[in-house]
Design brief:
Elements (H helix, E strand, L loop, with lengths): L2 H32 L2 H27 L13 H29 L10 H29 L2 H30 L3 H29 L6 H12 L6 E10 L2 E11 L4 H18 L3 E10 L10
Parallel strand pairs: 2-3
Antiparallel strand pairs: 1-2
């Protein structure tokens, strides 16, 4: 990982923590003065954001450590572990908020909501801060391929719709006295959180289980190898994902009558070309000689 990418990942992590802490303070005040469950749901989400963002920042720092004797392929799986933790906490939060929302919806008397104007102002600030953070995180994730930043961005993007829903709930209570809208919005927010949590968890689980690279990456590898000068063919492509890294193993077929230096030059060139074409990849090329005396026939 380049120094620039490291700085970008750190900046996304620090920004996430700073925004989460700011929103917790603002929404705690808004919850106290309004008594709105939708605000409480949004506050609970941001409180979890603080813990998860700190864990994500720690994972980003750990994942940048170089490979060592105990971790020959690096430490990038820490990103996937952090993303899996994010998923679990998001699902727990969604369950708690959903239960409270259902209880309020079916209560004999709707829970009152107060000082809606102040709550609307706080949620407006939340939309601006969250939107700015999401834009920055999506830029960083696109440049670096960091799975933790991408997962954090997805979660904060998921926060935007529930936050807008809270604005609707506070407005409905203030202008039309429809306080049950607050509980309905909170329930929808819980469902949205659950969906986001499952999506984050699915991606992290696949990476921890050495899932292959996406089909478009595989197609790109095949296309580069098929057109590489000096290759007769290629086979046994294997890939796995770990955090923002893609590990690639490929067997290539070369003329067995050429010198070892020439064969190594061809394989080494292909290795560097693949690492440049696929951001964050580590490539291992296996040279298989073909032709007379090699035990394998050349394709004609």
């Amino acid at each position: 990982m380049t120094d620039r990418n490291k700085l970008l990942n750190y900046s996304a992590g620090v920004a996430s923590v700073a925004v989460a802490v700011t929103l917790v303070v603002l929404k705690l005040w808004a919850m106290v003065i309004t008594g709105a469950l939708s605000v409480a749901a949004s506050l609970a989400d941001n409180a979890l954001d603080v813990m998860v963002s700190v864990a994500a920042l720690a994972a980003i720092a750990y994942a940048t450590r170089p490979a060592d004797d105990d971790h020959a392929f690096g430490h990038t799986s820490a990103e996937d572990l952090a993303a899996l933790l994010q998923s679990a906490l998001v699902l727990i939060s969604a369950g708690m908020i959903g239960v409270l929302a259902v209880l309020r919806l079916f209560a004999a008397e709707p829970a009152p909501v107060h000082a809606e104007g102040a709550g609307i102002a706080v949620m407006g600030v939340s939309v601006v801060l969250t939107g700015a953070l999401v834009l920055w995180q999506r830029h960083v994730a696109k440049v670096t391929g960091n799975r933790v930043v991408a997962a954090d961005s997805l979660h904060y993007l998921g926060d935007l719709l529930p936050t807008l829903g809270v604005l609707v709930a506070l407005g409905a209570s203030s202008w039309w006295g429809l306080s049950r809208v607050d509980s309905a919005i909170a329930l929808l927010a819980a469902l949205w959180l659950a969906r986001s949590g499952l999506s984050i968890g699915h991606g992290a689980w696949n990476a921890l289980m050495d899932h292959a690279a996406p089909p478009e990456v595989l197609d790109r590898i095949h296309a580069i190898a098929a057109d590489w000068p000096g290759l007769i063919g290629h086979h046994d492509l294997k890939t796995r994902m770990a955090g923002h890294r893609t590990f690639i193993s490929l067997h290539v077929e070369l003329d067995g009558s050429q010198s070892l230096n020439d064969a190594h030059r061809i394989g080494d060139g292909l290795e560097h070309a693949l690492e440049q074409a696929i951001e964050g990849s580590e490539v291992i090329i296996h040279l298989d000689p073909v032709g007379p005396g090699s035990g394998r026939q050349m394709r004609g």
